[in-house]
Each structure stands twice: as structure tokens, then as C-alpha cells.
Amino acid sequence: MSFSDWFFDTVDRLQSDPSPKNVEIALRKLWAGLLGRFVPKQQEEQVVWDEDWDILVILDGCRADAMEEIVQGTSYQSLFSDSKIETRWSVGGTSSEWIKKTFNEKYSEEIKETAYITGNPYTDQIQYDEFSEFTHFGIASTEYDIRTVSPRKLTDHAINTWRKRDEKGVDRMIIHYMQPHAPFRSRPEWFREFKGTKKFGSKVWWRLCDGTVSHDDFWTAYIDNLEWILEEVSILSTSIDGSIALTADHGNAKGEWGVYGHPKGVPVSAVREVPWITLDGIDTEEYTPEYNNSDRSEDDQTPARESQLEALGYK
Predict the structure, then answer these.
(1) Phi and psi angles of residue 273, each rounded to the nearest 5 degrees, phi first
(2) Which of 66, 84, 106, 147 has the fewest CB atoms found within 10 Å of its own CB?
């Protein structure tokens, strides 16, 4: 966010609600901008194309320490038994930054042999026809009383795509899930009260900053969302053959350097340092995808950025 963007956003916000809490939001956004402008990057950015993988799984907004907590636990020992968690410095602090720096002309040769299956709304800024296959899934209601991108749709479509990769001309595949990014399945009430408003608390990160949501409750909900998506990774690992890499487009700060969420351009490790784990995928052919590509709705066909951003807590 440029200074002029910040200024006009602040004026608009304070005209609609000149509360002390909105003043704090404005100051924190200004602080994030100053960090991005004057604090140097801690590490060199690493592009995913430089790594060795057949299937790349993007866990949107996944903190490295959250993944480490899962790997060291007992719930997913079978999935991560032979894996070592590493980290990489992401090319972006937001999905938009990551997508722009990952899918551009410099990597056109890699892109044309890659299938990209995604639920991220910012993919509307790239050329879909440059991929060997491009599939976008939109938000929908779920059994958890939240609107988000169903991870199972992406999983099933990815499995079907990879099993037919030879006839599709697919050499690599990227699956961009929207979890563990908010909304959290275990806390739907956090995302109802302020939906569609600019009031303080409309984003769960501001509620964490405000103290309305405790750090313990927030972390529990965040970890649960990560476990939700790792259930899908478990299915993938036994349904596709190849080297699978798990990483994130960016992380999320929960107070480090006074930053909450993932502001653009902030060189804070909680935002830019992401997990990197490799797994060996072996297709046991025991899983049959339930979701069929012919069942896709119109919302799935084209990224509708504004409606998706609202569901994800940005509007």
C-alpha cells in the first residue's frame, strides 16, 4: 500500500467510523508500510520453480511454526514419518505478490507444462491459457457454517488430473488450497458479526490484535484449519505417484514486530518464512474421487475476486 492509498483509505475509514480503534488500525497499517520500505529482507527470496517436485501443494497463509507443531505431534506421524521440515523465504507477503512473481514470462517454459488447480481469488490476474491445464474453484457454503473454497473439490480434481496427466500433457501440477487461511471451520461465529462492514473486528487479525479473540483460541482454530487441509494432503499422498512438496504462498503474523495478518511487502519472518516439506506420493488406487469436474458451478469457472475476498474476511 502506497502512502496515498493509506491516506485515502484512512480518511474513508475514519469518516464512516472515527473511533479510537479505527485510528489504531490506520496507525498499524502505516507501521506495516514503514517496515516494508525501510527494513531489509532477512533472506533471499526462493522461487518454487527452482525446487525439485512433481506436485506442489500450496497451503494458503501457513506459518512455518504451525507446520512444525503438526509434524512434531502424533496426529500425522504416518504422513510425515520420513519427512524433515525446512523453510523457504517466500517471494511475496500476499497471495497477489506470490502469484505475480511465480507465474510470469520468466517461467513460461515451466508454466506451459504445469496444471494449476486453485481456489485463490487473485488468479484472475494471470493468463489461464499459458498452463497445460488451469482450473479455478470458487467459494461455497460448507457443512461448517462458513463460506470458503471446499478443499475436497481441489483434491478430487487434482487426483483425476494427475491420473490422466499423460493424455493432458501435464508434467507438473500445483494445487493451491485456501486453508489454513481464515475463515476457520471451528469458529464460524468469528466471521458473521462484522461481515460486509469496515468496523474494527471485520478481520479476525484485528480481533486478535484488539484482544477480542485470545491468542490461545486463535491458535487452536488456526491449527484446526491446518489439520483440515492436511486431511486432504493425506488423501493426495496415497492417490498420486510422484514427489510432493508442501509449502505456502505466505505466512501470517500474530503480533511479531507489531504486525497482524500478512500486509503487502512486510519483511517479517512470520509472514515471509514458509514451510517446505517433501513427501513421496504412491497411488494405491484405493481412493476414488467423488467430485466430478462436470459438477462445477459457474462460480467455479471464473474467479470472482470481490465475493471471494468478502468470504475470506477482507471486505
Answers:
(1) -85, 120
(2) 84
Residue boundaries of the structural domains of the chain: 1-38, 42-311
> From its phi and psi, is residue 255 left (phi > 0), alpha (psi between -120 and 50) or beta?
left
Strands 86-89 and 114-118: unpaired
Predicted structure pTM score: 0.84
CB crowding 116-126: b at 16 or more within 10 Å, else e = bbbbbbbbeeb
- Residue 203 has φ and ψ, to the nearest 5°, of -110, 135
Domain 42-311 has CATH 3.40.30: no
> What are the pLDDT digits (tens) for 174-210?
999 999 999 999 999 988 865 554 443 347 887 888 8
All cell numbers assigned to 179: 486453508
Q: What is the pLDDT of residues 134-149, one digit of tens each?
A: 999 999 999 999 999 9
Q: Which residues pair with 115 in a beta bridge?
A: 133, 173
Residue (of 247, 61, 240) closest to 162 by Cα position: 240
**Under 8 Å between Cβ of 288 and 154:** no
Nearest to 157 by CA among 79, 242, 232: 232
